[in-house]
Fold:
Amino acid sequence: NVSLGEEWDDQNTTLTSLQVSFTPTLVIVSNTFCTIFLIVTSAIVRSVSEKVRMLGSLTLCLLAMVIITALTLVNTDSWQMTFFVVTMIIVALLNICAAVTQGSIYGLSGIFPSTCINSMYSGQAIAGVFSSLARIISLLLGDEPVTSGLIFFAIADVFLVFSIIEYIFLTKMTYYAEMKSDSEKKEVLETQPEVKSNWASYLVVFKKLWLMGMTYGGTLFVTLMIYPAVVVYITSTSAESPWSEVFFQPTITFLLFNLADWVGRETPRWVPWPGPQGWMLHVVGAARLIFLPLLMLCHGTNKTFPTIFNNDAYYIIILFLFAFTNGHIGTLCLIYYPALVEADELEVGGAILAAMLGVGMVVGSLLSPALVALWGPH
Structure:
């Protein structure tokens, strides 16, 4: 509730039940609808054209964001529960659109060289960096929550408009046309004589990708179990100041995370380790579970879980490594998967991998309230 003005409490000292449940509910709704429609996208990738999927989802996403932007100017004090429900419905719509866009991009990226896949995945992290910077800028420009929120959402609206324009520009590029044409020719040459149903062909591709998909989905499973639902309660150990009270969370929990994630997505260009053979990649991916107790042991002013790391430096180092491995392992999975399938299976393979990512996301987010309960904010 940002319409309280000077009574606004941003230190988690007097949280209402809606405020406590907001982040876990947001994560669950986001990832549930995202996963469902990542799976739907993998099923319709051959029956609905790429342009319809991309432009349709981006346009609906823009409309939903415009509604959210307008709602920042509405006083919701008298209808908090209704506003909570409306917000979650809009969040669901945004994630439906994001899932269709993401699944389509993953499928499309499979027909391009691995450097393009790396750039696509890094671009997602850059978007997170821009989002974090936009939040910090909005806080600097507007002291009131309404003003900073309006600036933040307006920046998102502008970026969505640019995304639509950039996609249209991409489809008119010669390089894009050549890669699409080459992919279609390979599909014709490599299509097997026997005719298989769509679901049979999906099953064939899934059998080739299930292990890589498990590792890929596992990266987000581990990440979303604790981020952001729990880490938003981690507080600075420094004395009261604008840094500890206002800028610590946006700068460390979000900007640092997205920067480290971006670095992790870039490093496979030069250090493609672990390799695609053997079990090392999958073991390293599973080892990220160690970050869950490490982050739970960081400092918080309102928690019942034990605290061991009573210094901001510990949290910064742990969070950096947590985000770096998220980006690095995920990028390696995307780079390696095209070698596991045939040319005519690349687009379906990318969509299936995105769907498995979504499953990891939703399972991780469903488990996040349990970690919030263990943390124990009152």
Remarks:
- DSSP finds twelve helices and no strands in the chain.
- Residues 80-109 form the longest helix (30 residues).
- The domain at 16-375 is CATH 1.20.1250.20 (Growth Hormone; Chain: A;).
